[in-house]
């Protein structure tokens, strides 16, 4: 005979354990889902997607029973806009993935940021699939080339944004360049004036030196000319003094002849 009382205890224990684990797992999943839903989305609301869905499911206007049909060209343009925004978001996801993994591995950021990123990555994958299906609904095999056209549009938008940024900075850079050119011109003119003044001072010094040397040369030449007659008189005096008796003798002889 089976001892049901002895088996009831472990069976009850196992039942309580299984029920506790199931309850904990259910509560943990609900809490995780609610926490993930309460997290701030990685990207802002997809405006292009909302516009496309609004045009696709446009309600009939008041007073008309027939639904308003939006032309396919408008819907295709809206779908291309939606795909272009998806391209931008996909590029942002790819650029941030490596850095975010490094930060998570180092513990620099919390797990909430990782959950937000994973949810955004999953959303962008579903969005790309939805765009491909919508494109194939408009035209066969258009889903294979819709993102190529969207990529070209995204690059065109980036180029236009860059050109607009450069044009907005052109006035500021022009003012800066004019100011720098004016400062450079003023500094150059100051240096030129200083060089002219230095050259004029050097020229005046050279002229003063030339005039002083000319006057000194003129004085040295005039002094020997003035001293010439004096030297002749001295020589004559020396001659007279040296030959005094002879001169005197000749003069007395002449006087004697005259008396005779």
From TrEMBL:
UniProt-recorded name of the protein: Translocation protein sec66
Keyword Ribosomal protein in annotation: no
InterPro entries in UniProt: Sec66
Domain of life, per lineage: Eukaryota
Taxonomic placement: Eukaryota, Fungi, Dikarya, Ascomycota, Pezizomycotina
Keyword set, alphabetical order: Membrane, Transmembrane, Transmembrane helix
GO CC annotations on file: Sec62/Sec63 complex
Transmembrane segments: 6-28
Positions with biased composition (Low complexity): 200-228
Organism, as annotated: Cryomyces minteri
